[in-house]
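Continuing from the previous page of notes. For each protein in this section, the sequence appears first, followed by its structure tokens. Read the first protein now.
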Amino acid sequence: MRKLYSHPKSPTPADIVADIGTSAMNAIAKLEISSEHGARGKYNDQAGSPLFSALPRELRDLIWAFATAPYEDPKAKFENTAYYYRPGHTARLKTETAVLLTCRRVWLEANAFPMMQAEQSFYYYRGAPDGRDPEWMARLTKHNSQNLGELHLFIQMGTIERLAGPTWSLRDYFLIHRPVRGDFQPRVFRLTIRHTDWWSWENDAPLRLQDTWVKALLDAPELRSTPILKLELETLDYKADQLAVIVDRIKKLESAERSSHYVGDYPTMTRFELADEQDTSTWEGPTNIDGRVRQAYKDKATLTYHVVTLTWNLRFTSLPHASVPGLRRASVALSPDQNPLAVDENWGRAEGGLKFWYSAILPRRREPRMTEWTEGMKRYHFMLRFWTQVRWISRRQAELGEAVRRRQFEESCGAVLERRWAARWEAEKSLLKFVGHRIP
């Protein structure tokens, strides 16, 4: 059953939280996440408060977003000569969560916003005091992992170049445990190369960057749940021309297509597409970086930094104008069982006449280059190939049957679910409504 949702064109919390579009399904996802904690049904509906009785849910979400937005703590300023000092990181980032303690009704609606809006910064060398580490990521609850907002990686050129190697992945910079579904899905991923992260910056060497790790970043399977990818390159103003050459080269890199999401019951290809406009900014800092004045800067009063930010958006290749929300991830197909199959001595009397097929088909296939194949090796090779095909056919039939049964179930329960959501939105004074299908 296909349903369409309407929503007013006023700004939504998604614009503030992650800048990932104005889809009503994002609001639905937030409601569902909050309901997992078992507190729904155990709260006072606060009918006497105009906040809940008069304001619609969308406006309340804007209030929660503003109340829990992170800010730079004026009581925890950084030294302006530190390696990590820059706009947006001049002090520790702080989030106020007092609003969540007012009542259960507020907590149910707003508990995801602090994590969704926070910027979690990881530094590989010369990090700030509020930097995170893989141990911190390992301590996150499932709820916090699902609501992870912006993940910001500050990293030196020599360290990020490992990403292009065959034995290194993006998650290795953040996680110390084995992969678990849903443990790495930030809404925004930002990677920053600071002026002090380039090769031989102390000697004022020319800028150089390998394209291989940028291509590996665009193709990273870990980011196929991340709608926005940002690459921030920072250098000094008199090297802007060198940086422009590198940026033009990066813009020509194309993201590989991956089957990463389900639309309905069908896996769909996604890829990162470069935004039309790049963001360029400048800022000024002292010449005594880390308390020392380098030879190249001794004649300068201040250093002017030139920053270029490239943005990629995750898109469906078959739906180029649609943004990718948090849909179901495509499951990884299990590889066939590689355990040796026991060859029965009476295998010729097996069901289906395997001995006949063995004698009729195997001689026509090209055998591996070996000095000599024994009869037992031929039988084992055939049985392994035969049962692998049988398992694949059986698994595919089960998947198709499950898809049909799921579609039949959704069609039969569609009206019930529609009534349930309509009643919930009405109770929350929400502006969301069903269109294109009426409740009988």
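Done with the first. The second protein uses the same format. Note its length before scrolling.
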Amino acid sequence: MEFTTTGQIIECRAAVSWAIGEPFKMETIQVAIPKAGEVRVKIVASGVCHSDLFFLRGGAGPQVFPCILGHEGAGIVESVGPGVTSVAPGDHVIPLYTPQCYECDNCKSPYTNICTKDAMLQMAGFLSDGTSRFTCNGQVVKHNMGCSTFAEYTVVNETNVSKIDPTAPLDKVCLIGCAIATGYGAALNTAKVRPGSTVAIWGLGGVGLAAAMGAKKAGAARIIGVDINPAKAEIGKMFGITEFVNPKDHEEPIEKVLVKMTNGGVDHALECCGIASCMKAAFAACKGGGGVLTLIGLAPLSEDVPFNAYQFIAGKSVNGTYFGGWKSRDQVPKLVEDYLSKELMVDELITHTLPIESINDAVDLMKKGDCVRSIVKF
């Protein structure tokens, strides 16, 4: 694909978030020319994730606004700034909210995937030079999670973009940018689900179902889905769920139900809701002497979770995961290849595909639990 916009400011559509609690507003924005080390991408499609709802509800505070959300996208490189070597105009790419700079201590470590380069700037909504490439109505609009895929064109750091196979459908593999990679990797890389083990997964949205897929891949014997939406029971089977439990169907706490079901507790609990009470219940459902809780869901940054200290003494442990533990630029292309070779389910998560102008409808579907994943397209 050839672009005639290289070297020019681009005017395009975007769903802008102006303040906490306000719906997305479709706007015409200006997207500046990429600077050194930056990549401008024409976004084709983006998933609408619960983490977007986290920001909309104020989970990270008011300082992130106004901004352009979206971190589960895929598109085509329109132009690159000086010094960019890993991608070129026309390349198909997935923007990455977890960068990989190859230079920081974490990127050089085999024990973590959390890059520290520009981490504070990314949290603040800016690129590497501390500024934004977005303006709307004369006002600076911030980036979000280093991606901002709810804009028809976005600018990302080269560290935040991965080149993928051009034959992969962009309106499908965009989900590898968050839900698939996060849940699937949480089970395989972080929890390290053991063959023959018992796994319980709280929340069967896109991330939870991907986690089930990872647990199945790892050889878990029992994969118990926990969700208050009974519709998730059937789709869960497709991804590897062997049993389904709805907390609303039981008078006693769900952790007691699971302890009885599993004769003492589960080997692995994967919490995908980002709800403190679910995290506490999931830890209580882990068996003593080796049960592990892996926290995946994004809770409000100010929220604490009270765990009883004796649970740790009894041999339980807690860990957390970010982007499923994948080294993003290195491993996202491989996940796309796994999808193309039918080793990784993606299409089955997509229940709705909408135009970007209907993004608030996608949010409503998510709030009501009437979708697994909605895709918005430009």
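What the second structure shows: The two ends are 16 Å apart (CA to CA). The mean pLDDT is 96. We return to this in next week's lecture.
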